[in-house]
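Quick one: structure for this chain?
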Amino acid sequence: RRGALAGEPKTGGEALSTAGPAAGACRSAIVGRLGQTLLLNGDPDGCVSKVLEAGGGPHLFGFEAPVRPMWFRLLAVAELALGHVTAAEMWADRAAAACAAPDGPPGRRGFALLARAEIQLARQNPAAGPTACRAAAEFRAARMPLNEATARLTAGMALSASGCQAEGLAQLEQAKALSVTCGALALSELADHEHHRIAVQTSPPTTET
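Got it. Here's what it folds into:
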């Protein structure tokens, strides 16, 4: 996920400079993706700044309504990376509120649930595992395998942390399989790393004969 997307002839900044102020939602998406790239490259503060710029303020009206939960969740992740759990909860609340309308694209509720699960995990709340599993189910129903993999990774870590190691390992195995299918190498490696870490911790001690 790091670096430029394959086949892109221009950097995000170059694409933005040619889009012009009238590009509307397209411009917002470009600036928002710059924010996502900043987060992936270790700059969560820059991510928050760019996403808010793209969205035109904290309500993110600059983004089309169906995709706002995704961007609110990204803001929550960035705030968690900064250690701002209370701020992350505010963005998760807004993600949930953005899903209140009965109509809308499939999968959007998954982003709100995933944001909530990630915050619960940060607070060591045992509800994180079930919440992340619900997010994964939403993404699976919407046929969004990469997002499902992310949710199952969170579910695996959360379930294992709350003492449900077998269920957690199963979630991590699904996360790895999905990420491999999607070609998401970094996510696959992370799921594999977590699976190994938890498996080693839960393995019965060996006795020498």
